[in-house]
Design a protein that fits this description.
The chain has about 375 residues and is of the alpha/beta class. The termini are far apart. Bound molecules: S-adenosylmethionine. S-adenosylmethionine (SAM) binds next to α8.
């Protein structure tokens, strides 16, 4: 039995902020707050990174190939008992998180499905689903261990949203992460023209709505392949009263006309698609971005720039946290890939914590 009974209206969101799904009971929310603090403890409180740094100081020298440095970092970590504890806790806190999120959302499954249904056809946000859409095989992955992955369960969007609340340890409680990227770390195209914006792989639409809030006169579209993500994104934008469009499309084959967009925005997509699809997506963005437009990509930093601890975390995540394509991206050399596809730097890239921002544009042909 849930400790607290909530009605449909209350179920709209935890603290009714940014329509983060409200869980079935305060007990569940409290448990997930505990998991969030456990995560924070594993990341910082255990001081694993500092201990590893003490043993691997000389491997900070990034002139050595990252594959070589990683090998030595793993050898050093194998001698550290705390590394095993850290790895087990990293895995366990993810499993604890998903178990509780799923059971809590399932306890009120009918209400959540009703919420999605009630949003259908409501504005100002619009939703376009493709009845003939076929999910690509490479997307059939339980990213970050999310049960059923991104598209098989109708509540996948709500699961993902609460999952990222815990994952970002406080930075995603009120959409502040997405709002900050859009408000503070998105340069304009050189000519300042922003009429149409594409949010690539928008999931639950937090950057899509933030983009509309920054550029109220622009036409803003978020695309994703997952119907449950898009339904959740649409419901969320309806609740927030933001006029954006969500459309079920593939990032590597969007179906939009040439030169349509002034800005193409992409937050943490590229490390979740295989290299073949990364390349197709770069070609597709080159087609739909107008010359002089802004292609802003925020994703994991490159392996060659990582500290020993970051190399260790990335290795662990790729194998034990449902990130099978993470290495494709991190070891690729994204700058040279962008150049290979004809992009030029539009503004100097930026490091934002462990995320890197790339700002690219296309010359007039
Ligand atoms: C890590 S999430 C992206 C995060 C999102 N930009 C955000 O801010 O929450 C990855 C998203 O990419 C979507 N996705 C992955 N591959 C895709 C593809 N080929 N086409 C469209 N969407 C894709 C997934 O469904 C998922 O919603």
């Amino acid at each position: 039995m849930p400790l607290m009974q909530v009605d449909t209206r209350q179920a709209l969101g935890r603290n009714n902020v940014a329509v983060l799904p409200r869980l079935a009971s305060r007990e569940d929310e409290s448990y997930l707050d505990y998991v969030e603090s456990l995560r924070s403890f594993v990341l910082d409180g255990m001081r694993f990174d500092q201990q590893l740094a003490t043993r691997t100081g000389h491997l900070e020298d990034t002139s050595e190939p990252p594959e070589e440095r990683l090998k030595k970092v793993r050898e050093a970590a194998a001698e550290m008992p705390v590394a095993q504890a850290r790895d087990r806790l990293m895995r366990s806190q993810q499993e604890m998180k998903w178990r509780r999120i799923c059971s809590s959302l399932d306890a009120r499954r009918d209400i959540h499905l009703e919420r999605l249904k009630a949003a259908e056809g409501r504005g100002p946000a619009r939703l376009e689903l493709d009845p003939d859409f076929e999910q690509p095989q490479y997307a059939n992955v339980h990213f970050h261990l999310q049960p059923d992955g991104y598209y098989k369960d109708p509540l996948a969007g709500f699961r993902y949203h609460y999952g990222t609340k815990v994952f970002f340890v406080g930075d995603n409680d009120k959409d502040q992460l997405h709002a900050s990227l859009v408000e503070n770390h998105l340069p304009l195209p050189a000519d300042g023209r922003v009429e149409r914006i594409l949010d690539l792989a928008c999931s639950v639409g937090q950057s899509t709505t933030a983009l509309k809030q920054r550029f109220p006169a622009a036409d803003v579209t978020g695309i994703d392949h997952s119907e449950p993500m898009l339904r959740c994104a649409h419901h969320r934008a309806v609740e927030l009263g933001v006029d954006v469009r969500f459309s079920q499309r593939l990032v590597e084959n969007t179906g939009f006309e040439d030169n349509r967009f002034d800005i193409v925005f992409s937050f943490i997509l590229f490390h979740e698609i295989p290299m073949r699809i990364i390349r197709q997506t770069l070609a597709e963005v080159r087609r739909v971005l107008r010359p002089g437009g802004m292609f802003a990509v925020y994703d994991f930093m490159m392996a060659r720039e990582m500290t020993p601890a970051q190399l260790y975390h990335r290795y662990f995540d790729s194998r034990n946290n449902g990130e099978p394509y993470g290495d494709d991206f991190c070891y690729a050399g994204f700058d040279s890939l962008l150049r290979e596809f004809g992009y030029q730097q539009a503004a100097p890239g930026k490091r934002l914590g462990t995320t890197q921002a790339w700002y690219a544009t296309l010359p007039a042909s």
